[in-house]
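FAQ

Q: What does a record look like?
A: Structure on top, sequence underneath. For example:
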């Protein structure tokens, strides 16, 4: 059975205070979000940030939170897709919608931070491949930004 591509009509407008809908997804992805302190931090931040929600009927299938750093630059602060909806185009569509909204606000640069390849991890190798597939390029590695966990900053011109 082939998976159908997720319909973009299921992406909400950015909203604040959405952590109660996003936290359950984070907890279903221990390969990416397996550190409890990090989950608690993300949950706090999600409530403070505009967050897009992807829906499959009434179920939240994924989300993407944006942090604006300046009048020209923003970041995909946290993004996750429910495991049963992986590889159905939801992540791509969340990024597309976020980029469209950011362009309308005059944002020119979008960044994302993820685990660097210098820390071998099969799940984050998939994450880096995903971000490359939507146009992000590696910019710089920060070996100590996350206290001993090497961080890769990826960027994209909007």
């Amino acid at each position: 059975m082939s998976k159908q591509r997720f319909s973009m009509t299921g992406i909400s407008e950015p909203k604040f205070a959405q952590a109660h809908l996003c936290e359950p997804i984070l907890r279903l992805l221990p390969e990416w979000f397996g550190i409890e302190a990090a989950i608690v931090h993300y949950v706090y931040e999600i409530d403070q940030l505009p967050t897009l929600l992807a829906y499959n009927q009434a179920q939240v299938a994924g989300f993407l939170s944006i942090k604006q750093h300046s009048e020209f630059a923003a970041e995909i602060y946290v993004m996750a897709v429910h495991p049963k909806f992986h590889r159905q185009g939801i992540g791509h569509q969340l990024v597309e919608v976020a980029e469209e909204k950011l362009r309308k606000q005059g944002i020119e640069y979008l960044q994302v931070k993820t685990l660097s390849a210098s820390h071998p991890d099969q799940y984050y190798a998939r994450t880096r491949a995903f971000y490359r597939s939507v146009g992000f390029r590696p910019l710089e590695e920060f070996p100590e930004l996350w206290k001993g966990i090497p961080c890769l900053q990826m960027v994209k011109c909007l």
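Q: Is there anything notable about this one?
A: Helices lie at 19-27, 36-48, 90-104, 122-133.
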